[in-house]
Structures are given as structure tokens and as C-alpha cells.
Amino acid sequence: MGKYLYEFHWDCGRQGDVEGLFVATQEQIDNAIGKEVYFGEILGKHSEIFGELEKCDIKKLEISSEVVSEVSNHLGLTWSGYNPLHYLRYKCTKCGDEYPGEEMICIDPGNEVCDYCTEEDQAKHN
Q1: Which pTM value belongs to this model?
Q2: Domain locations in the chain?
């Protein structure tokens, strides 16, 4: 599946803007829409920047997948600013808590379980 360049923008009022240029597949974007994004205090102390990622927050730039792939070999997947895909939050289907993606295990789409519940399950079975 081809990777494309996307532009991300959130207007956070007086606190400022959150922007980024990043590379992703269309499938990654589709899966991210509607999920919670949590940036924390990126715009200063007590800013707490978070919200649901909407289609209007992300714009696909008209650059061929081949060019994006070639430049990504040098610049990586985040070209500037913030990549919202790195700040997605997922709700654990067992405990209901929300965690960043790196703390989740996806059994199948829509059935994500946090590392903590997974460890508890493994401890019970050992």
C-alpha cells in the first residue's frame, strides 16, 4: 500500500496551533479518524492538548507516493511538527482505561487490550 504526505492542523485558540507534516498510508489515516489524540502540555504548562481526530484535521497533499517514499528514506515518517498518529489513545476493552498505542496489544481491530490487563491474564494462567 502506498504512503502519502499528510498535513495536520489543530487551531487551539489563544494557546496556539499544533501542526505537522507526516507520512502514512490511507489505511492508517482511516483507522485513526475518530480516535482520541493526546498531546499533553505541548503548547506550554497546563495546556493539555487533546481531542478526537477528525477528517477535516488532516489533508492529503498532492505528491506522488513514489516521491514521498524516496524522501522518507532520508527524512523518516514525520517531516516536521507533530504526527498525530504517534499520540493516539486507545481504550482497553477489558479495563476501559485509555493508553497510547505502544501500551496496547491489538487482538483484532476494535479489540485492543492494554499491556497491564495482558500481564494480569498471563499471571493468572501461569
Answers
A1: 0.79
A2: 3-88, 92-126
